[in-house]
Amino acid sequence: MIAGGIEDEEKWLAAGIAGLQQNAFYMHRALDSNNLRDALKYSAQMLSELRTSKLSPHKYYELYMRAFDELRKLEMFFKEEARRGCSIIDLYELVQHAGNILPRLYLLCTVGSVYIKSKEAPAKDVLKDLVEMCRGIQHPVRGLFLRSYLSQVSRDKLPDIGSEYEGDADTVVDAVEFVLQNFTEMNKLWVRMQHQGPARDKEKREKERSELRDLVGKNLHVLSQIEGVDLDMYKDTVLPRVLEQVVNCKDEIAQFYLMDCIIQVFPDEYHLQTLEILLGACPQLQPSVDIKTVLSRLMERLSNYAASSTEVLPEFLQVEAFSKLNNAIGKVIEAQVDMPIFGAVTLYSSLLKFTLHVHPDRLDYADQVLGACVKKLSSRGKLDDSKATKQIVALLSAPLEKYNDIVTALKLSNYPRVMEYLDIETNKIMATVIIQSIMKNNTRISTADKVEALFELMKGLIKDLDGAEEEVDEDDFKEEQNSVARLIQMLYNDDLEEMFQIISTVKKHVMTGGPKRLPFTVPPLVFSSLKLVRRLQGSQEQEENPFGDEGSTSPKKIFQLLNQTIEALSIVPAPELALRLFLQCAEAANDCDLEPVAYEFFTQAYILYEEEVSDSKAQVTALHLVIGTLQRMHVFGVENRDTLTHKATGYSAKLLKKPDQCRAVYGCAHLFWVEDQDNLKDGERVLICLKRALRIANAAQQMSNAARGNTGSVSLFIEILNKYLYFFEKGNPQITVATIQGLIELITTEMQSDNSTPDPAADAFLASTLRYIQFQKQKGGAIGEKYEPIKA
Questions:
Q1: Is 467 left (phi over 0), alpha (psi -120 to 50) or beta?
Q2: Is residue 28 located within the same domain as residue 168?
Q3: What is the distance between the alpha carbons of residues 282 and 295, in angstroms, rounded to a whole number?
Q4: What is the CATH number of the domain that holds 697?
Q5: Fewer CB within 10 Å: N-end or C-end of the chain?
Q6: Could you tell me the pLDDT band of residue 640, with boundaries at 50, 70 and 90?
Q7: For 148, how many CA atoms within 13 A lie in the half-sphere containing its CB?
Q8: Using an 8 Å Cβ cutoff, are 651 and 623 in contact?
Q9: Residues 17 and 70 in one domain
Q10: Do 423 and 319 reside in the same domain of the chain?
Q11: Which residue, among 495, 411, 423, has the nearest Cα to 453 in the 3D structure?
């Protein structure tokens, strides 16, 4: 049925165009032969095609444009006639004899244009006559296009200031009156379209009306271009008349479009000075009008106007723009009871952006807007409308974007209260936005109170909120927690006491994070605390009592806090991570000469190793970390060091795989020979470790031979040879030339045996080691003499 209607419309349009072209042809012939009477006759018949009611506005427009082109040619002919002496007044009378009213009015407008141009009569009289006569057409589509034609032909002939058609003192008033009258009549016709035809075609009619809206809006554009319309005239005449028409038409589409037109076409300066009048109309509009978009666009324009020059800012204060906009938004929200929460939040978001642009120094204004938003949200509880939550994020992001500083935003008392109404997911998004702002602007948050407020805002990222979903995207979660970790590293204060308070505050929040979050958030907290320990230690040089009295911050206090913090990882469980952190703390305690504290951290690390680290690869890694850390410790007395060293060598011998055992045992040799400590140079025990490593390497070969029929690689022997060379060079008297020589020969023999497996890597390793020996020989001096007896 619809397809049939479209086909019929195409036929009617084709028929109309054909009729129009045929009469236009005869009109041109009459024009060429200067036959005025025939020209008027055929032009009237041509224009009769516009009397159709069968076409949609879109198709009617096609027909109208063809007629418009022909009328321009007719207008040129009339101008020529006037120049040849034909009386325009007679012509004006003559065209009124056309049989049908629509062709008659089109011809009248065309001749009227020439009449004004001839200046034989005042422009205001001709325009008044034309706009009154056009009332004869009351069909909405035909009337709109006729009045649009009148507007088109008259726009450059208005009696404006500085125009060639300017008459006496009040002609600007006449020009404005003409445009306003034409606008009013066009709007009435446009609105009337809504009420023609059956209710089932409502959507179709609305679409058609949308296509025609620019015909009405052009009048407001013409008004804005009239030079004589100054602020006083706009305030006293133009705006009240336009708004009266907007409010009285009681049509949703017209009200929204025309309010938007007013905002877009008239100057910002006029809007600012007439804010009260413009805003006064808003609560009177139909409840279904999208007032949030209208007001948002108005505030956006005013914000841009304020940003354009600092000179205009006093005007905003003078007219109390914020107060007026705030009151208007309150009244609109009150008047439109059914306004969705999304609409209200959008309005507050736009008002906040306006406030931040125009009054950036007035934090009380910004807080007032957020407070009004909280009041509106308080009746709703948590938001579940995605559009509204997006607007809340925009609202809360605005102060961050303006001030580039979360510290300023934290001064707004209602800021965290607004965040409470976000659902869990959006709360996380907003927390991430806050962290990104801090990172981007390198914001320094330097007091415990500010950290407390910030972490309260970010609680969605720091702990599981009530009702949080179980299913979380793993990558997103990691990204969120890594951003929290980066934030913790950024917190800083030069004052050591305050820094300790910051760390304590962070710990309080981080500890609520649960097993999934702690592995991400505990390490940065630990390293932040260790930085503070080193700063405290650094102050030792300046002060006699660097760690203060009992009540002040001391390394001991921080280590106690660290012990509790790392122990929390046991609930995760994350034993490998906890072990690494205990060893880091032990090293820091070593630097502070706190032996009992360092011993306690090592004890904790050993307990974790024994009870929690069961994976063989993890054990190897952990053991090498333990040996490396212990080797660097200087704080331990003989007894404590022996205990820890004995434990480490014991663990080495109990590793599952022989190669791992071998490497751990020769690693332990370093525990008995520490370069910068003479009391820790026990050559005999070094040799015992190396000999034990050799035995284990040998056992590994025998096992390989028994299981696979070959002795496998000799790389372990080469690694042990390198250790022998290291201790030989460091001056261990137990490592002799003969021992090294014997080991080189053993390796060479093994590599040449039938049972060995070819291993290019081992060959290269041995060649590199032998090259090193030759290189040391060539050095000369004491080192050269030492290496000289070794035959490589």
A1: left
A2: no
A3: 9
A4: 1.25.40.660
A5: N
A6: very high
A7: 20
A8: yes
A9: yes
A10: yes
A11: 411
Both tokens of 531, joined, read: 């930085």
Tally of domains in the chain? 5
pLDDT at 545: 46
**Residue 325 sits in the same domain as residue 337:** yes
Please choose, from the candidates 729, 743, 751, the residue with its C-alpha nearest in 3D space to the C-alpha of residue 695: 743
Mean pLDDT score, 732-756: 88
Sequence-ordered alpha helix ranges (H) in 513-615:
518-538, 555-567, 575-591, 595-611
In a domain, 130, yes or no: no
**Quick check: is 721 in a domain?**
yes
* pLDDT confidence bin for 735, thresholds 50/70/90: very high
Share of the chain above pLDDT 70, in %: 95
What pLDDT, on a 0 to 100 scale, did the predictor assign at position 515?
A: 87
- CA 125 from chain centre, in angstroms, equals 58
**Residue 543 reports pLDDT greater than 70:** no
292 by Cβ neighbours in 10 Å (0-12 / 13-18 / 19+) ranks as: buried
Say whether both 600 and 749 belong to one domain: yes
Place of tokens 């006496």: 168
Structural domain contains residue 132: no
Q: Is the peptide bond before 573 cis (omega within 30 degrees of 0)?
A: yes
Separation CA 504–CA 564 (nearest Å): 12
Residue 329 sits in a domain whose CATH number is 1.25.40
Which pLDDT score, from 0 to 100, does residue 470 have?
58
CB contact set of 625 (below 8 Å; sequence gap of 6+)? 579, 580, 583
Binned at pLDDT 50, 70 and 90, residue 548 comes out as very low
pLDDT at 164: 76
**For 669-720, what is each residue's pLDDT tens digit?**
999 998 877 778 899 999 999 999 999 999 988 888 777 766 567 899 999 9
Question: Residue 640 domain-assigned?
Answer: yes
User: Hey, is 125 helix, strand or coil?
Assistant: helix
Range of the domain at 391: 285-443
Q: What is the pTM of this model?
A: 0.76
Tell me the longest C-alpha to C-alpha distance in the chain.
Answer: 135
What percent of the chain is helix, strand and coil (3-state, nearest 5)?
A: 75, 0, 25
Contact assessment for residue 46 and residue 27, using Cβ atoms and an 8 Å cutoff = yes
